[in-house]
Amino acid sequence: MHKVGAAALAALLLGVGCHRGRFPDVPAGYSEFAYVSNGGSNSVSVLDLVYLREDRTLEVGIQPTGMAVNPKRDEVYVVNAGTAAGTGSVSVIDTDANRVAATIPVHKLPYLIDVDATGERAYVANSGSNTVSVIDLARRREIGVVGAGEQPGLARISPDMRSLVVTNRGGGSVSIFAVEPYAAAAGATGANGKPSAPKIAAKEQLPRLRAVFTGCPGATDAVILNDSSKAFIACSGGHQVMAVSLAAAPESWAAKQNATLLTDHMLALLDVGQTPVQLALKPDGGEIFCANFGSDSVSEIETGTNEVGGTYTIGSKPVFGVVSADSGTLWVADFGGDSINLWSIDDGQMAGSVRTGHAPDALAFSADEHLLLAVDARSGDVSVVRTMDKNGPTLFTILPAGGSPNAIVVKAMQEKF
């Protein structure tokens, strides 16, 4: 069964003229699922977004946390933090069959995972062992470990796959690794998007430490610009966001024009609100919105000038934001107010609010953005918001999840006949 990417699916669905009730119609062979990690019940809830119903529950490892979608394969990954005394793991979910296809051991207290643009490598920060695991996704195994700072929480790979940014929460620092080009295993992905036996082994080169920047207490979330030129890191133990210039490729035009771009260097420490916990990048890359959990606000950061354009009050304990594909609206999970708030980016003001379950946290759009899904951490469910209603966004339904849900991803697939 051949599949196409989510961006193509969004365009396809938006081009469909007829509607089923008040939702877009979908072509034959189309499927779309949301996957929710339930930290309190050691499971992943699978929600069918075509029929808006619970599909099934998958048993995974102990205390599942972060999740990621493979951009090339029909797979989703969930990190199992495990126990303080034991090691963690990564569960591989086959999204064709919606089953756990493999479990990959990593190290102590992993929380988050990131997948590179080829879909061949994943990176997992192991908070309990101060390391980052490098995973070969075709062969479903760890191929190496590199040392990081104290209690790394996130390892983020740049779009050009040359830089790995690791946030060290316990050490209050950011580690930047150089990622060497590798040869993807020929034949590693079959025609159906599933792993097959590689004909030649992948070149297993591990990331190499390139720079360390201190002065970012409680370093947590990080985003990297689309052109891989800069990273922004939330310093959650304080009230700042660190901006870092990432080293350009020696053969690049930018590096040839400016030799200083050949090295990583800190650009600024930007004052935002208290306890910045999450960063949302506009699709056009021009701005970042920082959710300031401790000061009930969001800060708008201009990525071109590395400046804070403004900090605005929005709800109670904002914890997570996503920006619409047209870069016009910021949706913010109001953890303390049981709602999702809308911020009009162009107008610079609140544009509405939608009630949810108890303590909304992580957010995710459906492929064509006609739905916004909010994980309700304390009520153990997922609020489904219809974003394109003629009367404005409305809560359509609430779907069940497991105990203490904490992360959500969406995978859309189209069968070709």
Description of the structure:
This protein has 2 helices and 34 strands. It starts with 5 loop residues before the first helix and ends with a strand. Among the domains are: 1-30, no CATH class; 274-378, TolB, C-terminal domain (Neuraminidase), CATH 2.120.10. The model is unreliable at 1-20, 185-192 and 195-203 (pLDDT under 50). The protein has 417 residues and is mostly beta strands. The chain has a 4-stranded antiparallel β-sheet, with no helix packed on it. The chain has a 4-stranded antiparallel β-sheet with strand order 6-7-8-9, with no helix packed on it. A 4-stranded antiparallel β-sheet has the order 10-11-12-13, with no helix packed on it. Helix content is 3%, strand content 51%.
The tally of helices reads: 2
Overall 3D geometry?
Answer: globular
Per DSSP, what share of the residues sits in E-state strands of 2 or more residues? over 45%
CATH topology of the domain at 274-378: Neuraminidase
The appropriate CATH architecture of the domain at 274-378 is 6 Propeller
